[in-house]
Write a structure and sequence with these properties.
Number of strands: 12
CATH class: Alpha Beta
Number of domains: 1
Distance between the termini: 42 Å
CATH topology: TIM Barrel
Order of helices and strands: HEHEHEHEHHEHEHEEEHEEEHH
Largest sheet: 12 strands, mixed
Number of helices: 11
Strand order of the largest sheet: 7-8-9-6-5-4-3-2-1-10-11-12
Strand content: 5-15%
CATH superfamily: Aldolase class I
Radius of gyration: 20 Å
Length: about 400
């Protein structure tokens, strides 16, 4: 039985599933499937109460990371339009008013380059203050996370995740500059901006909300030196360290995966402490997506998505976020239930007409689709070959 998530729990524990005895368990063994592949209203509302709505505000980005999943979209989608903020607000209001949904993430692309978000008077941020009972999160690479953006969200947002991936410029540039897309002087300015923004965040005394994130890749940023830089920066700033297992976008990239056993042993050598029952295997038939650890006085987190693996794929409908993205022209929104497949559920008509029944039913259909484990066995995300990092 899954323990309820309490507001008193530390932020790094909020997405980790443990039983009532505080022990990790195989999520795939605890899921409750609907009758004949269908969810009844109670089951759907139960899902909406615990899942996060993850809104991609724009596919555009000011970095080009070698591991980028682009939230399941093609890399060429980085050239498409921003989401319509009015549609984002209208859809979110419909869901908050008519369902128990109370957790919303803003991501991209890079959300801070959306014209509304990078303004000093964001309509979206102003709207979030009308919903004090909803947990809002921002996921960013930190380059454009300027003080005027931080000032608008620091009081009412529950989490700010910053994908730094390395605090050494040479490594950071290698990770964020696929095929040398950006000139080196531009990259240095971005890195300096990232450093300045971290310093400003640290002065706001909201470290319990901040996560420094690193997607760990073998031979690139998995050395003791790289990992310790992240850990020590978190100690300096009072932030949470978060390490994510690399998700191959192409089959040839499997060699970059750093498994839990190897990574946890590295982190333990650096002073991190894991509980005795923390899983150290990467068994494809078992799904324990989040693991906590301690580093000195800090709480840390390790996460796995596991797309295509048996237990992860079968558990996805019961665990992973509900991804909503802008249409190609930026005039509509759609649900993308499976990251590795191209399936889409267009939400535009339901939003424009204010049809709450249609909107909720589309979310229901997307979760029922995931109950079929449609991405099972997928190896690689079918990205454009010209963007492959080998």
């Amino acid at each position: 039985m899954i323990s309820s998530l309490s507001k008193k729990r530390n932020e790094e524990e909020m997405t980790v599933r443990k039983n009532n005895n505080g022990k990790y368990f195989d999520l795939s063994k605890e899921i409750v499937r609907g009758k004949e592949g269908r969810l009844d209203d109670q089951q759907l509302m139960g899902l909406l109460a615990k899942l996060r709505l993850r809104l991609s505000l724009t596919p555009k980005c000011n970095a080009w990371c070698i591991f980028c999943s682009n939230e399941g979209s093609s890399y060429s989608a980085k050239c498409e339009g921003h989401a319509d903020i009015d549609q984002i607000i209208k859809m979110s209001d419909m869901l908050i008013k008519n369902t128990p949904l109370r957790s919303i993430d803003f991501s991209g692309g890079e959300p801070t380059i959306h014209p509304d978000i990078c303004s000093e008077n964001s309509k979206l941020f102003k709207w979030t203050k009308k919903h004090p009972d909803t947990r809002f999160s921002l996921h960013t690479n930190g380059i454009n996370l300027k003080p005027h953006i931080v000032d608008q969200i620091k009081d009412n947002f529950s989490r700010i995740g910053i994908s730094v991936n390395s605090l050494k410029f040479e490594t950071w540039n290698k990770i964020t500059n696929l095929n040398n897309t950006f000139p080196i002087d531009i990259q240095k300015n971005k890195f300096k901006s990232l450093e300045d923004n971290l310093e400003y965040l640290a002065r706001q005394n909201i470290g319990e909300k901040i996560f420094l994130k690193s997607v760990v890749m073998k031979g690139i940023n998995d050395s003791d030196e790289e990992l310790k830089l992240i850990l020590d920066a978190c100690e300096k700033y009072g932030f949470h360290p978060k390490f994510l297992e690399f998700e191959p976008q192409f089959p040839e990239q499997i060699k970059y995966i750093v498994g839990r056993k190897e990574l946890f042993e590295k982190l333990e050598r650096l002073g991190c402490i894991f509980s005795d029952d923390a899983p150290r295997h990467n068994d494809p038939n078992t799904y324990i997506p989040g693991v906590n650890f301690k580093y000195k006085k800090l709480g840390g987190l390790h996460s796995i998505f596991g797309c295509g693996l048996k237990a992860a794929c079968e558990s996805c409908f019961d665990f992973l976020c509900m991804f909503v993205k802008p249409t190609t022209d930026g005039k509509g929104l759609y649900l993308k239930p499976c990251s590795v497949l191209e399936t889409q559920f267009d939400l535009t008509h339901a939003i424009e007409t204010g049809n709450k029944e249609e909107l909720i039913n589309l979310f229901k259909m997307s979760r029922e689709y995931l109950m079929l484990a449609p991405g099972l066995g997928t190896c690689g995300w079918n990205k454009e070959e010209k963007y492959k990092y080998e």
